[in-house]
Amino acid sequence: MGEQAAEAVDMTARARMREAAMRLFAEKGYAATSVTDIAKAARVSGGLIRHHFGSKAGLRQACDQAVVAELAQIKEQNLARMAKGLEPILDRRRAELGRYLGRSVLDGSEFGAQTFRNGVDLLEQYFRANPVTGVQDVRGFAAAVHAFTIGTEAMYEVIAAALDADPDDPATLYRVHHVAAQVYSSPITVPGIAEVRPGVPADQEGTVA
Predict the structure, then answer these.
(1) Which of 45, 38, 44 is nearest to 24 (CA)?
(2) pTM over 0.70
(3) CA 161 to CA 167: how far, in whole Å?
């Protein structure tokens, strides 16, 4: 086998290990996933994983970097489509990446926390430039919207199951995103809730530790 061919095989194995890790981290969480689990899913040895990534933590870092890069590429493509009046592309891959991000946030990883904060920062900038009627706590609103988005992506398969729908069917993905968009455009509120101010209700003062 030539040097270039060997390098190509090596990169293919590396990508396979990373993809297996991304899937398992999203499904089970980082702590519950072992190097052995990843090696089995990628059809390689645990030693090969350590050779390429050094440790499970090193592999997670590689996954984090790959997810950020791919999401940036998808965002760029969708912005270009929207500039032409076309709808953004929604596919299972985007859902998988979103699920990975959601799990990272729930796992309490530094990457997940920072990625979530970055998303809130961007949404806050957007909502300050494009105010939403009745919203005074812009930062809080941005955080809630981002949490809703991440939660929907992280729980995609659970939502599909609740709908008795096939998560691998593109129609299911579009259905979930369409309903989520309806929640944004037609929020369900309790009468008078918009007038409620942050803080502890007067009748509950002193009851919160």
Answers:
(1) 38
(2) yes
(3) 8
